[in-house]
Amino acid sequence: MTAPLPAETILSVRDLKTWFVSKRATTKAVDGVTFDLKRGKTLAVVGESGSGKSVTSLSIMGLLAKPGRIAGGEILFRDRNEQVHDLAQFEPKQFRAIRGREIAMIFQEPMTSLNPLYTVGDQIGEMISLHTELGRGEARARALEMLKHVEIPDAARRLDDYPHQMSGGMRQRVMIAMALSCNPSLLIADEPTTALDVTIQAQILDLLQRLQAQFGMSILFITHNLGVVAEVAHDVVVMYGGRVVEQAPVNSLFAHQKHPYTKGLLACTPDATRDLGTDGARRALYSIPGSVPPITNLPPGCAFEPRCSMAIEACRIAFPPLIPAGPETFSRCIRTHEL
Ligand SMILES: Nc1ncnc2c1ncn2[C@@H]1O[C@H](COP(=O)(O)OP(=O)(O)OP(=O)(O)O)[C@@H](O)[C@H]1O
Q1: Percent of the chain topping pLDDT 90
Q2: What is the pLDDT of residue 262?
Q3: Are 88 and 125 contained in the same domain?
Q4: How close is the Cα of 337 to the center of ligand 1, in Å?
Q5: How confident is the model at residue 199 (pLDDT cuts 50, 70, 90)?
């Protein structure tokens, strides 16, 4: 272990490298990613599609599909007994003791976690029986309590519903109930509201915040949407091409972006009032020119350089380090101090 885990940190990802190695190519989906998640807080990992967000969360959960493997780095996790584990070194069977119980995950599509053939009460009850000593009756009572926690109306009756009898937003609540049923200390939320319409999305984000205050869990929130980040995060990590390009507390990030990519992402974020012109017409939203380069073919210098309006010759030549750019703020841009 390089350095001990500070008491207030529940998860510390250090120089994580997750690669997909085949005969044809090595895809460095995550290449030297470092961040810390503080106890009881929410850290958002944000970036465009393909930036490595999901591969980071799957690495933490031990759910990488072959040929993915952790090629380097540490994933230090503090369990509820204050024991620190390096999940990067875990065997699959060690993950079984932690997944669900200590670390739970919710996804964009609830049906990846829910079985269409069983009632939601049975599924939450099963999860509870699997990870606790509770008997069937007690597990069912706890399942009901969880449905109430996630604010499902008429919870006692909905316990016997099958997932298809529920709306998308309700299914998402059930998935949250299931994830939180064993009181995990860490919840990984991978785009949990992306498939929902805006009103339902706002309700689910509110619910997650209330549950965080109530249960005290820490949340690693994966999203491509800075609007969602503003809503839920305490700290933010911005990823591009499998690397962290900016890291900052949420308020400083929105007040002052210290990487041109973050600036671009923010300009792409819809904002109902800002986008209305004086005539009330909706203006076209800015989009960052170009697209994320294939991860197997990143430029040698700054990965964002081909799309960056601030790029200079030096950006093309040398790979930029992550440098301090303000209080608790880091940027992988050599011109960050001009921003
Ligand atoms: N099984 C795999 N084999 C090879 N490469 C993979 C595999 N799974 C993911 N990758 C690569 O890893 C990179 C990062 O993917 P990842 O899914 O983490 O991105 P993301 O930021 O979560 O995007 P999205 O928002 O679309 O999920 C991508 O370039 C992808 O091609």
Answers
A1: 70
A2: 95
A3: no
A4: 31
A5: confident
> Ligand 1 pocket check: which of 27, 58, 222 to mutate, most ligand atoms within 8 Å of Cβ?
27
Given 165, 183, 201, the domain boundary residue is 183
> Does residue 238 contact residue 61 with C-beta atoms inside 8 Å?
no
pLDDT confidence tier of residue 282, bands split at 50, 70 and 90: low
Q: What's the 3-state SS for 124-144?
A: HHHHHHHHCCCCHHHHHHHHH
Q: Residues with beta carbon inside 6 Å of ligand 1?
A: 20, 27, 29, 47, 49-55, 65, 68, 224, 295
Whether 60 and 189 map to the same domain: the answer is yes
Number of domains in the chain: 2
In a shared domain, residues 171 and 198: no
Evaluate if residue 280 carries a pLDDT over 80: no
Give a yes or no: residue 170 inside a domain. Answer: yes
Residues 28 and 136 in one domain: no
Residues 178 and 252 in one domain: no
Phi and psi at 112, nearest 5°, equal -75, -25
The mean per-residue pLDDT over the stretch 263-287 comes to 68
**Is the domain of 124 the same as that of 237?**
no
Q: Quick one: pLDDT band at residue 100, thresholds 50, 70, 90?
A: confident
Domain stop point among 160, 183, 206? 183
Q: Is the pLDDT of residue 1 over 60?
A: no
Amino acid at 231: E
**What is the Cα–Cα distance from 184 to 182, expressed in whole angstroms?**
6
For 92, counting Cβ atoms within 10 Å of its Cβ (0-12 exposed, 13-18 middle, 19+ buried), the class is: exposed
